[in-house]
User: Which sequence fits this backbone?
């Protein structure tokens, strides 16, 4: 019952709340398990004693109401009828998740950065890498990233964005059980493979997932009811996107602190 209360609450929020607390925590835990000893030590130094990456993974959502300028930093609107990212079209003012990830990466790696700025940049970075792998943070169909797409999910009203933020994930098991399964599945070989490319290529991959799966497999009609078939198709995608995000966050942090 508690998870459905959370889902209904999330459905009322703006589009920037990607994955929900559980999803962001999973991404951070997967990344933390793949950090080099040096990167792990630097993260601990920046965050402070007994503060884990997972514990700060949703900080960027928590401060957004007070720092409204950060809202657009969580996503990039790549139209689903376009094959690729176009930064001039999709991020003309530099106020999107791709640019902010790159800015945060530079900030944490710069030895001149103050401890306060480095900690804030790290907290944003952990969250934004997770956000970018929720496909509706890189895909848009003139519907506020799926927020305007109303649907029924097992008899309960929600919208497409909230479904992918938390609705599908909530039915996959507890966070600890999910972490154990994803951590086992994310082998060193897959970690290396997922880590290839750069932030822009990763955003395009998330966008293609939005095109092919999120929108492409969605049942048609004026009253959309999410079917068991859609859920079965989407569940492996949710898991792989979380794994991709964890592997890529680890790659960014390992490179920044090498």
Assistant:
């Amino acid at each position: 019952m508690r998870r459905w209360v959370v889902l209904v609450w999330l459905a009322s929020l703006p589009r920037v709340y990607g994955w929900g607390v559980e999803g962001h925590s999973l991404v951070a835990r997967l990344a933390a398990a793949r950090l080099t000893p040096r990167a792990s030590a630097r993260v601990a130094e920046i965050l402070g004693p007994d503060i884990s990456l997972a514990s700060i993974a949703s900080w960027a959502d928590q401060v957004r109401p007070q720092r409204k300028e950060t809202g657009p930093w969580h996503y990039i609107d790549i139209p689903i009828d376009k094959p690729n990212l176009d930064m001039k079209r999709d991020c003309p003012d530099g106020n999107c998740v791709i640019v902010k990830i790159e800015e945060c990466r530079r900030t944490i790696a710069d030895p001149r950065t103050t401890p306060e700025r480095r900690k804030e940049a790290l907290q944003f970075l952990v969250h934004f890498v997770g956000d970018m792998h929720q496909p509706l943070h890189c895909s848009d169909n003139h519907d506020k990233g799926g927020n305007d797409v109303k649907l029924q999910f097992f008899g309960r009203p929600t919208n497409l964005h909230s479904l992918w933020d938390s609705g599908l994930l909530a039915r996959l098991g507890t966070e600890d059980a999910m972490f154990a399964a994803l951590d086992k599945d994310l082998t060193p070989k897959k970690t290396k493979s997922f880590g290839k490319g750069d932030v822009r290529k990763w955003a395009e991959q998330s966008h293609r997932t939005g095109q092919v799966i999120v929108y492409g497999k969605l049942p048609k009609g004026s009253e959309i009811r999410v079917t068991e078939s859609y859920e079965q198709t989407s569940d492996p995608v949710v898991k792989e996107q979380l794994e991709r995000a964890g592997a890529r966050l680890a790659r960014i942090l390992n490179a920044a602190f090498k």
